[in-house]
Every structure is written in C-alpha cells, then in structure tokens.
C-alpha cells in the first residue's frame, strides 16, 4: 500500500486543558486514521509557551509512530504554514466582572487575526474547527477574514452538545448510545441551542413514542442546554476530556465521512429552514468525506421546534451585530 504524505495539524490553546486531552489522540491517529502520518503544530500565546514545552516533551515521550514532527510556536505565520487541519481551541476565559459582550469582543479579535493568518498561510484545502467560545460567532469571524478559503471549510463545534444529548436519551431508555440515530442540535453552542428529538430513532423506532413530552421539555432540553454549567459546578473547571473527544469525532467525520449518520456541526447557514445566510448555525448534517457535507433537507419543523430554533438564531444575529466591525 502506498504511504500517505504527512499532513500538518495545528492546535491553538495548546497549553490549555482541552488541548491536553486532544493532542495525544490526534497524534495516535484517532482523528485522521491510523495510516495518516502527522506533523503536530502547537500554538499558544508567549506567556503560555513554557507549558507548551512540557506538552511537547510528553508528546515526544509517547513515541507515537504517526508523529513525524512537532512544532511549538506563538507565531501564526509559522504555525499555520501549509496546515491542512486547524483546531482553534485557544480563547480567553471570562475574567471577574467582565460582561459577556466584552468577552465576545476580546475573543473576536483573536479569531480575526487567526482567520487572516489562515487565509495567508494555510493550504487552500485546510479545514478549520472552531472550539473556542463563542464558537459559532468566532467561526464566522475567522472565515470572513480568511481570504482564499471557502467559508464551508470552517465550522464550529456542537458535537459535544450532540453527544451529551445522546447520552441523556440512552440513559433514559436504557439502551447503548449506538442504538440511537437521526438526532441533531440546531442553533448556537450556548444555552439557547435546541437539541431536537423530533426525528430521533432508537433501533429504528421513533424516540418520541418512547418518552413523555414533559420529560423532553422539562428535563431533557434544559439538561443538555445547561450541561456545561453543571460540569463546571462539579469539577470546578469546564469540560475538557469530553470536549476533546467531540473535537476528534467532529474532525474525523468531516474528513473521513459520517457513513450516512446524522451529526451536528455549526456551518454557514445557506437559507435552509428559513435561516438566512450570514451566521454559523448547527444543523443536522451528513458528512460525505474530504471536508464535504450536506445539510439534511426537507424535514418538517413543528411550531415548538421552530420557536426554539428562532430563539437561537436571534441570539446568533445579536452576537454578529456585536462584532460587525470585524467582519469583511
Ligand atoms: P484553557 O483556559 O484551559 O486554555 C485556553 C488556552 O488558550 C490557554 O493556554 C491560553 O493561553 C490559550 N490562548 C488564549 N489566547 C490565545 C491566542 N490568542 N492564541 C492561542 N492561544 C491562546 O481553556 P480550555 O478549557 O482548553 O477551553 C478552550 C476554549 O474552549 C474556551 O473558549 C472554552 O469556552 C471552549 N469550549 C468550547 C466547547 C464547545 O463545545 N464548543 C466546549 C468546551 C469549552 O468550554
């Protein structure tokens, strides 16, 4: 069998807690396949580079056969040079007394700079996953500033929300997660997201025929929407291992295909379901491989779902209005 050429994979926020779980899994081949050699590029701000040095040492000590090189840098021109896969994880956390809109603007600037650098230095086929919050709007900013790269090569992560929802349903119905299909998250990666069970199946049977409406509305939806906050309450810090796991699955399906299964990804709205172009929103998606995907079309949306989707899109439009100066 012919050997695959090495691909460069860049991860920002490399000194952070999500990256700590993420990097070894990329390096071991869980994201791009066990036959895909990788050059891992670790990017963080200068103040965090000492920690990144330690991450590099640990990565070396894992002696992963697929790792053909490691670069650690704060310089985006060096870090994004010829990258084919980029995971934008790094972002500023909210500091004491900071308003959500201040955080939005602080982080927006980071993603503007990174989008510009990707447009200049990354390979034209580069796929970028945005994890850093507010992920949907950061994806919009990065894509809008990355000249020469198709906005469809950017997406934001709602896979963690998707998997959290599957786990809740599997637990309720006492079935393995793999029995579930045709589930999706709509909207923003925030508390307005809409986890939609309308089309979900358990071993081919409608989930809605097996659970009470009150459970869906009063337990399932709020639990999924508030799961991030519940983890912070319990752990004292935000989701890391599960976020890394979701990022691996998002990139794996996007690059290798989802085998006809529905997944959730925030992608540029294309007018489907009345969501006008101009935001990155989560839809039910089927990934067809090589960075291509299709939004699942022609689903009937009932009034309850439409109301939830509208609320989340309204929030996305408000976030967009707050960063309009940074959009091209
Ligand atoms: P940490 O605070 O542990 O790490 C963040 C890292 O980013 C730090 O090393 C910091 O130095 C670095 N950083 C800051 N500015 C940077 C810049 N301009 N360039 C490169 N690196 C920079 O955060 P962590 O827990 O790893 O979370 C990272 C981001 O993921 C946060 O924005 C968080 O809110 C977001 N999340 C998104 C999720 C999603 O589903 N989309 C879920 C998990 C997580 O909450």
TrEMBL record:
GO biological process: malate metabolic process; tricarboxylic acid cycle
Alphabetized InterPro entries for the sequence: L-lactate/malate_DH, Lactate/malate_DH_C, Lactate/malate_DH_N, Lactate_DH/Glyco_Ohase_4_C, Malate_DH_AS, Malate_DH_type2, NAD(P)-bd_dom_sf
Catalytic function, reaction form: (S)-malate + NAD(+) = oxaloacetate + NADH + H(+)
Annotated binding of substrate, by residue: 94, 100, 133, 164
Catalytic activity, EC: 1.1.1.37
Family matches, as CDD domains: MDH_chloroplast-like (cd01338)
Source species, domain of life: Eukaryota
GO molecular function, one term: L-malate dehydrogenase (NAD+) activity
Domain Lactate/malate dehydrogenase C-terminal per the UniProt entry, residue ranges: 158-322
Chain residues that bind NAD(+): 44, 107, 131-133
Residues annotated as the enzyme's active site: 189
Lactate/malate dehydrogenase N-terminal domain ranges (all copies): 7-152
Keyword NAD: yes
This protein's UniProt keywords: NAD, Oxidoreductase, Tricarboxylic acid cycle
Family matches, as SUPFAM superfamilies: LDH C-terminal domain-like, NAD(P)-binding Rossmann-fold domains
EC class of the enzyme, as a word: oxidoreductase
Protein family membership: Belongs to the LDH/MDH superfamily. MDH type 2 family.
Entry-linked HAMAP family: Malate_dehydrog_2
Protein name in the entry: Malate dehydrogenase
Organism: Naegleria gruberi (Amoeba)
